[in-house]
Amino acid sequence: MLFKSRMIKSFIMMILFVAMFTGCSSGGKADTAAEENKNNENNTKDEIVYVNFRDIRDLNPHIYSGELFAQNLLFEGLVMITDEGVKPWLAKDWDISEDGRTYTFHIRQGITFSDGHKFDAHAVEANIQAIYDNKERHGWLESIRLLDGFAAIDDYTFEMKLKEPYYPLLVELAVTRPFRFISPNCFIDGTTKNGVNGLIGTGKYVLAENHKDQYAVFDVNTNYWGERPEISRIIAKVIPDNQIRTLALEKGEIDIIFGTNMVDAETYLKFSKMEGFGASLSDPLATRMLIMNSTDKILSDVNVRQAINAAVNREEISEEIFYGLESPADRLLAKTVPYCNVELEGYKYSLEKSNGLLEEAGWKMNPATGVREKDGKPLEVLMHYNADSVTEKNISEYLQDQMRNIGLRLNITGEEEQAYRDRMKAGDFSITFNISWGTPYDPHSFLGGMRMPAVYGDYAAQQGLEEVKKLHDTILEAFTSTDEIQRQAYYDYILTYLHNEAIYVPLTFERNRAVYNEKVKNVTFNPSQYEVPLDRMYIE
């Protein structure tokens, strides 16, 4: 940037020099060049440099390979989620039938995709059909399973029919994927199942450039149907290393670092106290936890699982690892999550209780090794963590030390992120990290995912539970119930049963965070932690 600035200044001086000797008036080329330079300087106020730990990847909005922050910039849905609930977006309003099975959406008129293709009910139908063509990929969505029909009634009326009532439908239509709309001109052979040949949406931005593993450029959509954002250009740099990202922010090479996986507690506190920088923290969003496999020989015993829960000092984890930024979690989902204000005796730290449960389960301490034994075998468990996550590594090492207090040998191993996730989905673990899906996905998407193999590790981990079938059936009953009292009763059973079976070890309630140059204003958070509201920010 310094070299470019010097070149511009040299160019201006050259023009001024020529003007002096050619009799150019003050309204000639010199003034024009000066004005262009002034405009270039002003344009930097319309540009923000964001950073991500990896490339934006495949942004097809109907699959799950791309970066959510980027998909959210390009593509929009019928409805959107706000702090006040689900609100209209590309649909101006909607009607729901008395039996809860038919949703009729009234589409806004005058909207086009950024390639000029008309956005109407027919475009909606084409997109929903493309999503449904690939329904096996969307097993976590009950709305796909319950979908009984859909059609454009006329140019601006779209109807969806369900086999059964499903109260979370609007939320699932609002989240970043897969129910976002891409221009039908981008379809391949009439669908998106096998990829797309363009990334054209109705969103506030268009993808102008993408240099793989380096940076992507998003320019404002000049034909956007709604209020245009103040930031006209977003440059998304790729910097995998946390220390290098932090240094880049300090040096002014980037403007903002955003997200729980991008900003650890130490980095947050550093920039919150540093002159010239700001830091923002969201309300609690999700539960950070461990998940224990109930089919494991040792962990199949509920007493052992309850003992591990009792041996975790959540307050210390909150203070020592998160510096108090994430509060201790004594239950699977916070009471503030819809339907989750259930009367439970929260998990409490008690080595006395933990040791007592292990004694009751027949695990006796071997004084020579400091490890409990039963039938000649040690109380030894392997825990996996994502090696790309500094936070998970720190928690793993802390818990490894803490479990010695109860005679449990906790072996820990880190793996590259994709291998780690594949192991989780396959159920090939004893203990691993897990997290609830956060707002707006909790509780329904998080619980619904438990019913489906290979979504995350929940399904496999629950297979050793005596009432696993009843649990999964009740989850579905909660989703399809139209009686609020009965629905709450279903959730009471689900959350109480999971709490008592103790296959989850809640640690803290996660909060989203951001650190940024002080010139970046209005750094806020969306209800979904996976969206980055760059469109609401501005440079001052």
Textual characterization of the structure:
The protein is of the alpha+beta class. It is 32% helix and 25% strand. Helix 1 (2-22) packs antiparallel against helix 2. The protein is globular and about 75 Å long.
Short description:
By secondary structure, this protein is of the alpha+beta class.
Rounded radius of gyration (Å): 27 Å
Number of strands: 24
> How many helix segments?
17
Round the mean pLDDT to the nearest integer and report it.
91
For the record, give the distance between the C-alpha atoms at the N and C termini, rounded to a whole number: 19 Å
What multimeric state do the chains show? single chain
Estimate the helix proportion, in percent: 25-40%
What's the layout of helices and strands?
Blueprint: H1 2-22, H2 29-43, E1 47-52, H3 68-74, E2 79-82, E3 85-88, E4 91-96, E5 102-107, H4 121-133, H5 142-146, E6 147-154, E7 157-162, H6 169-174, E8 187-188, E9 191-196, E10 205-211, E11 215-220, E12 233-238, H7 242-250, E13 256-258, H8 265-272, E14 277-292, H9 302-310, H10 314-320, E15 327-328, H11 351-360, E16 364-366, E17 371-374, E18 377-378, E19 380-386, H12 390-402, E20 409-415, H13 417-426, E21 431-435, H14 444-449, H15 458-461, H16 468-480, H17 484-501, E22 504-517, E23 520-521, E24 538-539
Parallel strand pairs: 1-12, 19-20, 19-21
Antiparallel strand pairs: 2-3, 4-5, 5-7, 6-7, 8-9, 10-11, 11-12, 13-22, 14-21, 14-22, 15-22, 16-17, 17-18, 23-24
Helix pairs in contact: 1-2, 9-11, 16-17
